[in-house]
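Hey, I'm writing a tutorial for new members on how sequence and structure tokens pair up, and I'd like a real worked example in the thread rather than a made-up one. If someone can provide the structure for the chain below, I'll link this post from the tutorial.
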Amino acid sequence: MKSGAEYFLDYYKGRFAKGEITEEQLSQMVTAGTISEDEKQYIMSCVVNREQEYLGYLRDLGGDTSEA
């Protein structure tokens, strides 16, 4: 069973993935002490992973990823 903290982080992870909150807003939450830097990185990890998958897909197709 998930803890309250895990539900909290997953909620913000979903909002970040949908573009409802920005990296700047997450940084403000770190500054305010609402979340830690590690938690911010966890929240942002979904987007980073998706970008890496997309770049891999482009490379597989022979696309130029040098500017990405």
